[in-house]
């Protein structure tokens, strides 16, 4: 198999979103996850609105297709179509800004209303490296997470701490839900597709001509 074919082999594809107030570090988190480096301010290539990466979660290859708000949140106009069919989301606040923490309830309401009912959300308290300027304690945020059935991590897009973990933990929870039957990847708007690797296992030799999920466009 060629290198490209190898790198495109995955069991599942999940659509992910990154939400939260402007300035909390969403674009930097996405950049750190995809590129393994901090996107500094001198890099004005705006519009990295989308990124994808294949991760290994407990032996399964999962391709994450991640959407960034691309600045829409500045105008409080994050659209319904942005939320549509997302399997997972990182809900981001800045630990040095209580204002961004106070906005979480609004973001949650939108996500629960506009995204898939079963969307898995991980709360990320970003800018963990700025601990001296902290306005929100770890304990307070973990209580909020517990009350709202969210996973929770403090992250730093600057140092990379917990960035990969946030995406992986969210993906792991979605996989667990698929395995337990709580989530059905075939349901419309689930935000999940089977990859070629999974299809190969599903196909019987007689059905070898069946189109892949991507070919038939069932998202
Ligand atoms: P977005 O509006 O949510 O996409 O936020 P950006 O990713 O554009 O980041 C906003 C600002 O916060 C930028 O100046 C970043 O350099 C800075 N920033 C983002 N993440 C971190 C972090 O983890 N630590 C620190 N110290 N600064 C960060
Ligand atoms: Mg941004």
TrEMBL record:
**Chief location:** membrane
State a GO cellular component annotated for this protein: plasma membrane
Sorted UniProt keywords: Endosome, GTP-binding, Hydrolase, Lipoprotein, Magnesium, Membrane, Metal-binding, Methylation, Nucleotide-binding, Prenylation, Protein transport, Transport
Per the record, the domain of life is Eukaryota
Family designation: Belongs to the small GTPase superfamily. Rab family.
Annotated PANTHER family: DRAB11-RELATED
> What name is this protein filed under?
Ras-related protein Rab-4
Phylogenetic placement of the source organism: Eukaryota, Metazoa, Chordata, Craniata, Vertebrata
